[in-house]
Amino acid sequence: MFPAVSFDIPTVWRVKGQLPDVARLLTTPKDFPLWWGDVYLSVTELTAGDAKGIGQTMAIHSRGWLPYHLHWQATLTEADLPHRWSLSATGDLTGQGIWTLRQSGPIVEARFDWQVTSDRLLFRVLGPLLKGVMVSNHQWAMAKGEAALQRALHVPSPANPPPVRQS
Fold it and tell me: Which residue, 86, 90, 105, 147, is the most exposed by fewest CB within 10 angstroms?
């Protein structure tokens, strides 16, 4: 029998923007497919959270560059918005993710600490041999997210168009 494989993958993003805007995008997972569609194929709310969002559970279908898809659920377990929040993962991935945001001048540093285990047969069989490749797959997904977040921060929404300059 092959044991479950564990991953502990910290990621740090540095994006130009304001902390409340970054937090708003990162705490609205139903919109991930709109701006981070390379990775998040669908996100559906299963359970609404309380007034702070605690308990909100989302069903997620995601992928990386390796030829497999993940089906998992994320539940918000802690929220000290806009600076920090935690989620638990179940399904193809089981564990915890913690987002920590900090404003540093015009840059927002967003750290994601992802500690998950998978007992999915594919991971159990390939994990001992290809764990580095699987970590690279996650890093690819996160790099796509950082670039997509930077673009999303600078694209005006229809509800908030850019100001019109008058000559």
Answer: 105
